[in-house]
Amino acid sequence: MNSQVSGFKAKISKQRLVVLGGGESGVGTAILGKKKEFEVFVSDFGKIKESYKQVLLHHEIEWEEGGHSEAKILSADIVMKSPGIPDNAPIVIKLIAKGVKVVSEIEFASKFTEATIVGITGSNGKTTTATLTYELLKQGGLNVALGGNIGKSFAEQVADGRYQNYVLELSSFQLDGIDSFAPHIAVLLNLSPDHLDRYDYKYENYIASKFRIAMNQTKDDYFIYDADDIEINKWLTQNPIQSQLLPFSVTKQLKQGACIINNEIVITIDNNNLTMPIGTLGLQGKHNQKNAMAASTVANLLKIRKTTIRECLESFQGVEHRLEKVLKINNVMYVNDSKATNVNATFYALDSMSTPTVWIVGGVDKGNDYTELLPLVNEKVKGIICLGVDNEKIIEAFGNVAETLIETHSMEQAVKQAYRLAERGDTVLLSPACASFDLFENYEDRGRQFKEAVRHL
């Protein structure tokens, strides 16, 4: 069986594909598997959304929810595990013990496309950079799709077969499930401790996971990375990679890659230069300068015209749930940064605040260390509103720093408390630094509930 599995690209009559998880990536993989003539079975330990059930029924794909039929799953030739399912889930442990290949959607789908793939990962800025890169390539006239950890599933788009280029936002969980996946252009934006609960609380395990994006690259591929990031530099020194390195930096001048000279972004690839004034960027802030550098380096490599790159960088206004200005009420600005699911993302958010801030924080802690936020909280935050089932760690970290600290257990409650605390000229910032799964479906649901609650004030 193993020889069949390792070569699952070849058409072998009715190989059995089992998909664990009936969400976006699971259903997309099931559709692709069916199209490629696998015998497909979808199993979800929880509930499958009605809309996804309809898709599975339409494609005549067998599915189950509310538990796993072990015999049906263990008879698989190959299993696609959705990114939310941990490696230590009992069914996954049994599959691996039996020698069944368990992969991610990204690995499975990449077998069935010859398209150029740009893979973008990092602890923060993935969605913004992936969306900006997609816009640059699309406006540059390329036939391109956006997928991975964002939007429509990569596998479903591969099944569709219409695209010659993909920009994929990739999480560490998706990269954990790859075997031979190799993007032509890999981007590593930054590293900061995140999801440590899935990595035995070891930062080095998480870092190794992120670097999997480059593990199958060759000398004909490119690796774009933040040259200001200590952990990235350390890893590259100890673990040389095969691809061509293109660094970006806001602190040093670089002969090859992207840097800042005289308030202009300068991108140099093989003596070919592109310049862009920082002041005209649609998204401001140092982290967005880096996101712009990474995205335009990709666009440059894929031969997008310089004028198109400049115009796109000037007009790009960011993505939903990332420092998104919602409304100004009584001269108080409400900002939705629900996508800040780790401490580093919240650091950027607080750092960008220029007015006294009422900060809504909390959710599922992923092994967070809040100490790096203390100076910013001291300087900028006038009140903290905890929003989570368990707020103990946040209270412990900031109880003596903020003049006001209030516990809440619903978004409506949190926004009402923020409204009472905020005065003219202040900002109310939702930047949770935590995952959302205690009170919300996901960070999008959390962000939308915030916007809804603000509009109802």
TrEMBL record:
Q: Where is the Mur ligase C-terminal domain?
A: 321-434
Q: Which Pfam families match?
A: Mur_ligase_C, Mur_ligase_M, MurD_N
GO CC list:
cytoplasm
Catalytic function, reaction form: UDP-N-acetyl-alpha-D-muramoyl-L-alanine + D-glutamate + ATP = UDP-N-acetyl-alpha-D-muramoyl-L-alanyl-D-glutamate + ADP + phosphate + H(+)
**Chain sites annotated for binding ATP:** 122-128
Pathway the protein takes part in: Cell wall biogenesis; peptidoglycan biosynthesis
Q: Which UniProt keywords apply?
A: ATP-binding, Cell cycle, Cell division, Cell shape, Cell wall biogenesis/degradation, Cytoplasm, Ligase, Nucleotide-binding, Peptidoglycan synthesis
Biological process terms from the Gene Ontology for this record are: cell division; cell wall organization; peptidoglycan biosynthetic process; regulation of cell shape
Domain Mur ligase central as annotated: residue spans: 120-299
- Uppermost EC category: ligase
Instruction: Check the record and name the HAMAP family matching this protein.
Output: MurD
* Summary of the function given for this chain in its UniProt record: Cell wall formation. Catalyzes the addition of glutamate to the nucleotide precursor UDP-N-acetylmuramoyl-L-alanine (UMA).
- Tell me the protein's name: UDP-N-acetylmuramoylalanine--D-glutamate ligase
